[in-house]
Amino acid sequence: MQVKEVVDHVTFIEVFTTAHGAIYQSDSESCWYIDFAGKLARFDYRCLLKLNKAINSIDIEQKLMDAQSPDMEIIFICACDDTYVLTLTQIIHFKELLQGTFVMLDLNQIIYNRIYRTAV
Amino acid sequence: MKDIIRIKSLLSTEIEEVLNQQIKKEAQSASIYLAMASWCDRNGFDNSADYFYKQSEEEREHQLKFFKYVLDMGGTAISPEVTNIKIEYNSFREVFEDALEQEVSVTESIKAIASRCYKEQDFVTLEFLNWFFKEQREEEYKARRALELFEVIGEEGTGRWEIDRHIPKISYSSEA
After folding, report:
1. Is the CB of A112 less than 8 angstroms away from the CB of B3?
2. Which of B14, B47, B83, B157 could serve as a FRET partner for A93 with CA atoms 20 to 30 Å apart?
3. Would you call B5 and A30 a contact, using CB atoms and an 8 Å cutoff?
4. Contact list, B5 vs chain A (CB under 8 Å)
5. Is the ipTM here above 0.95?
6. What backbone torsions phi and psi does residue B76 show, to the nearest 5 degrees?
7. CA dihedral defined by B56, B172, B97, B105, rounded to 10 degrees?
């Protein structure tokens, strides 16, 4: 409910969407909203980078091969408001979503550099 | 859509990571030199102990230079954990051999960062690294010169005492 109130006066720009989730950017708040695993969570610059690192450091193959390993992972990012409890399938989907997002953010940076920031 | 990532930081994630690795390497160097100072002090090589105390302080300064640069450019500088520092050496000469090896390793590591900067066209960080390249010329020269003393003076008789006496006199002055 609280998130909804905040979200009401924020303009979202879609960064990347998959069948399982979406990431939006808010220029006015300089942050991103992640719609994934049934919730909408707000991530600032540092937290998004930390989240990306945390998700990418999970060795999915190793977890699939290990019979003792639980099929769940708790993604807790220090100094962030949200925590995710994800299954391995969800982690794969989240990884895909984040990879796509960072490609789009890199592309956005290239466009900025080419169009606005370079004198030539 | 705003380019938030670039607005917040000049450094790419990869460059920030290698700079943090370098921060750790410099911290390790400072600790290694301190351990060398301890060994020299314990074994009666007071001048060499002072030399390594000074080297340790310099490495700490290098570490802080990297640390502050990462923070100033909008990145996250990580205070490193330093473990497994060697405390015993087999000989006086081995201390200086290890010191040179340490300096060579730092130079190579900074070269690898520069190579990464070229790849990403991060000329700002590259320019920042120039100071370290000049510094490494001096550091490697000093470490190499110290080892040279073992050759020219020799360790026999009062040789080691003589070497220890000459260690503080090692200096590097280059116009270039």
Report:
1. yes
2. B14
3. no
4. 45, 105, 109
5. no
6. -110, 115
7. 70
